[in-house]
Design goal:
This protein is 67% helix and 0% strand. The chain is mostly helical. The radius of gyration is 27 Å and the shape is elongated. Helix 3 (78-96) packs across helix 5. The mean pLDDT is 80. The two termini are 51 Å apart. The chain has helices spanning 3-36, 38-73, 78-96, 100-110, 112-129. The longest helix has 36 residues, at 38-73. The chain crosses the membrane at residues 16-36, 82-101.
Length: 175
């Protein structure tokens, strides 16, 4: 399978998912309109969009502050903070766009208590789709950090490291 076919398959699945979500949003909107009336449904949709803007402003500022602080201190939680900032952005977008299903999903991404659950579910989904060799925990060995085996000086030849001398003992280039 070529890479263009893989991209087409993923793009096709995304288009189908977005189409099904739009259809489900219309069905839910019509059902809510039948339940509480068309005017109240439109007002409720506007209210959830306004709530989305408010939550996006508050949680987005908090997530970006945490991300900036963890990047400044180079803490190991920077990846988590970056994920939080991304989820807040997606959640805010879902809340601002019209539709009650998107509002519910956006609210799950925006609230700190449920954001960790969404992040864990997305992590499991993405990890399950990775090849086995790339699934965490990934161990990477480097020849630069590998221990050099010790040689017994009486029985082995001296350790030889191949290389090129670029500077002389006085620090000037040899070439």
């Amino acid at each position: 399978m070529t890479s263009s076919r893989v991209g087409t398959g993923v793009g096709r699945r995304i288009r189908i998912a977005v189409g099904l979500l739009a259809l489900a949003e219309v069905v839910v909107f019509v059902l809510v309109a039948q339940w509480i009336g068309a005017g109240a449904t439109v007002l409720l949709a506007l209210a959830t969009s306004a709530l989305g803007w408010a939550l996006l402003a508050r949680q987005g500022t908090r997530a970006l502050t945490e991300l900036r602080e963890s990047a400044r201190t180079r803490s190991p939680g920077a990846g988590r903070d970056l994920g939080n900032a991304g989820l807040v952005a997606v959640g805010g977008l879902l809340m601002v766009l019209p539709g009650f299903i998107g509002d519910l999903l956006g609210l799950l991404c925006l609230l700190p208590g449920t954001r960790s659950l969404v992040r864990a579910a997305l992590t499991r989904l993405i990890t399950s789709r990775l090849p086995v060799g790339l699934r965490p925990p990934v161990r990477v060995d480097s020849v630069r950090t590998a221990e050099v085996p010790r040689h017994d000086a009486a029985h082995a030849a001296p350790l030889v490291i191949e290389g090129e001398v670029l500077r002389g003992p006085d620090g000037r280039p040899l070439r």
